[in-house]
Amino acid sequence: xxxxxxxxxxxxxxxxxxxRIGKGLAVNPSFISxxxxxxxxxxxxxxxxxxxxxxxxxxxxxxxxxxxxxxTKSMVQxxxxxxxxxxxxxxxxxxxxxxxxxxxxxx
Length: 107
What we know:
alpha/beta, 2 domains, 5 helices
């Protein structure tokens, strides 16, 4: 099971619940990625809390997807961020995480 976590004030309880439910269904979570909605220092503490919960539960954090307004522009045009602007910060982070997912699947 892969978990993608939006970085918000409710993300840590949501992550804990997702892990608990997954384990209850005998689907062991294996790794997470953090989707950052903002670059504020307040939400940076949420990122640290998410990573702590992941580590405590044996999950690997594969990376963070930064706030990038090009995501919205790409969606409006009906494209992925990679199709819209493959060199943007958001696209590079998605590609990096995808590579990490591939590597994790074939270990």
